[in-house]
What does this fold into?
Amino acid sequence: MAPVVYVRNLEKRYGSFVAVEDVTFSVEAGEIFGILGPNGAGKTTTVECLQGLRRADGGDLHVLGYDPRVDAKLLRRQIGSQLQESALPDRIKVWEALDLFSSLAPSGQPWETVMDQWGLSPKRDAKFGNLSGGQQQRLFVALAVVNAPRLVFFDEMTTGLDPMSRRVTWGLVRQVREQGTTVVLVTHFMDEAEELCDRIAVINEKRVVAIDTPDGLVEQFGGGARVTFSTDAADLAFLDRVEEVDGVSRQGWRVTVTGHGALLVSVAAELVNHGLKPIDLASHKASLEDVFLTITGEEH
Amino acid sequence: MGTFVKLSWVNLKLFLREPLTVVFSLALPLIILFVLGGVFGNETSQPGEQVVFRNIGAMSYYVPAYVALVIASVCVISIPTHLASDRERGVLKRLHASSVSVWAVAGAEVAVACVLSVVSAVILLVAAWLVYDFEPARSVVAVVGVFILLILGFASFGIFLGSILPTARAAQAVGMLVWFVMLFLGGAGPPPEVLTGAMQTMSDFTPLWHAVLMMQDAWLELDAGLSWVIFSAIGVVSAVLGLRFFRWE
It folds into this structure.
């Protein structure tokens, strides 16, 4: 099956300023695909080119089989969108917004159904400006799927939300995917990408620097595994002979073993062989945040 | 078509939810009309006096002029402010992402302006009819025809302003400025005959002056002369430039 989004060597300039210069990735049907990167890396430019809201200056782009530079209008009818820094008039009511946007996509569901489905019925007559940040995102998600799209773009949807609303919004994103819609999610939050995304493209300095699953990224860039435990045993030289171990360091009773592969079980087995049963044996994995900082070359 | 109707309807409701704007748009022309009516009465010029108000009497002059003025006030102040505000807030960008066309956005502005102008004109005419003695329209068909033309022309001008002005604040300030200049120089303030030479020259360049002449001439079956051509030209140029410079964000 052809990918839902295919983009190769995307390039976009504003005058002499290069916004993105070499972005390549593809998104498969049913995925939640994350685009992660620091502010100004070119994430929003990338997704806006894919939606035909900006004209790419170079590269191959195919979204749902359309070239956004040629068939922007047709394409936009079949995708859903929640844009960064876009909003509704403060005084528009929830039902009016749903009614208006559903009229743009006669093929979609009736807006009343969408309103019920996304839990907006209690807020039917509330004005947009009076909704909480989380409720506004709920409405944006509902508007993005009102045309029953095969693909939706969510750009920085949880920026400025409190932790509770962020969790709720994550639930909404999963709900969109469960309905069979492919999701492209732009974010600069590691926890969001780790929590939601099947695969992540890390964009830094206008280009894609890594694409993998969250675990794959950690595996690839996380700098190996680390196991710690405490012991009063004086001689730990036997650990150096374990194949997976790269190094052992010690501070008082506290021991840190670095290595690769199945480090934890190998260390555990060897400790037991030598009659040691530390109760605090633990394996530490680099977080996606560590990986992100490594990849984007920022200081720890 | 469905989008255009829905968008127009929503925009109209949103406008009515801004009480200050409503009062301003509907009441200001009315207040100025009553002030000027109090000052000038409705006498035609006496022999030997300077001829003012085209010699048709102040209120017979001002009532059709103010029908033109209410259209200008809706189109030149409300439209640019609304367009610029929607762009500034990202509303236009959101509509664009859902494939709403520039025609639907501009058309909805015109439709709302049309409804507001009609309401505003009716209020003005009823108030004037209750208080003043003025010449009734001799040809309703001609008045309605000119009314539609004025809405199209002024709305284009408003869309042009809304397209080139970056923020809602700038749009509102410029819209008000243009409107007041037009009010004073365009024949809707002091009688045009008392303006100095330089002011009269400027007045020839304000769309309102030509709109006032067109409306009065339709009202009283006078001859509008070149005003038709000049006003239409301003409208067409505004429409072309407005669409040319239209920005979604």
